Amino acid sequence: MEAETLLLIAVRLGYVTEADTTPTLDTMTEIGKMLSTLRARLLSTAS
Q1: What is d(CA 39, CA 21) in angstroms, rounded to the nearest whole number?
Q2: d(CA 18, CA 15)
Q3: Any long-range contacts for 5-12 (C-beta under 8 Å, 24+ apart)?
Q4: What is the sign, positive or negative, of the torsion defined by CA atoms of 20, 28, 26, 4?
Q5: What angle do CA 1, 47, 28 make, to 5 degrees?
């Protein structure tokens, strides 16, 4: 994901620490899981 890549670049450049990005990355992972589940359920009900 683009936002994840940008956060990792910010860590490498020293703009933020890994600890600062952990909550955001965790939230992004959870949202990704929710969207995947939603997509799968929508596709299964459309067939």
Answers
A1: 27
A2: 10
A3: none
A4: negative
A5: 20
Quick check: 22 and 39 in contact, CB under 8 A? no
Residue ranges in the chain assigned as alpha helix (H): 2-12, 18-46
Q: Each residue of 1-47: pLDDT tens digit?
A: 799 999 999 999 999 999 999 999 999 999 999 999 999 999 999 87
Q: How many CA atoms lie within 13 A of 30 on its CB side?
A: 6
- Phi and psi angles of residue 22, each rounded to the nearest 5 degrees, phi first: -55, -50
